[in-house]
Amino acid sequence: MSSRRFSETEKRLRLSSKRIEEERALLDAADVLAAFANLEPAGVEAFRQLHLDFIPAVWWAKSNWLQERNLLLKAWRAGFPADLTLKLTTARLFGVAHILASAGLPAGIPNPSFTAQMITDALDNFDGRSLIGLAPNRKILAPDGTDITKEVKRRVESDPQVWPYQRAVLFLHVEPWRAKVCQECGRRFVADHARRKYCSIAGEGGSRCSALVIKRQHLDWGRENNWGREKSNTKKSGQRGVRPIN
Fold first, then answer.
1. Amino acid 45: pLDDT
2. Which of these ranges, 67-71, 97-101, 220-224, has the smallest mean pLDDT?
3. Helix (H, G, I), strand (E, B), or coil: what is residue 183?
């Protein structure tokens, strides 16, 4: 094989490997999205610790996460149509997180939406106000007192971070057949093929619905089919021999 052909083959293999890794990452993100769709208040802290970078920290302020989860459930039931997908991926809280990060503020601060609005107000018409003789807006200062307003404005106007949550939602919009509701436990899960009916999520006892259903089906089949043994419809009966009397 020529060096050129070898190089082209190697390139194709790298691209193929990259696509496989990207698809695996999307499937992993979709599984976490399903876990978020199944989330209840009691499990919030465990989910936060397990998936720190899945969604912005501002989602956990007050009841923000619950509102977003309810919208996600609506999209899950509807098969991720375009309008709901757009709402999910452009939620206001993503913008709040971007503004706070641009200003160097932690996303977990109290009243993140109010703080983000104050930053936005300070940036509005930052250059234009002085040109028309209006008093300048409040400045954004670093902890050492340095004016960082222009730098924050530049960061805010840059491309925001794309979160795994957003990628997962778009993935299920493209492949909505994967968004399933388990017919055994009722939880949301991501299917590996279109005919999948039961999830593989471990329940409280550690058992998985798909395994439980298979076991139950085997037991039902065994009872109905005498565990694979032939059924005998007639009882064997023998007659005792009568000893002749001489």
1. 94
2. 220-224
3. coil
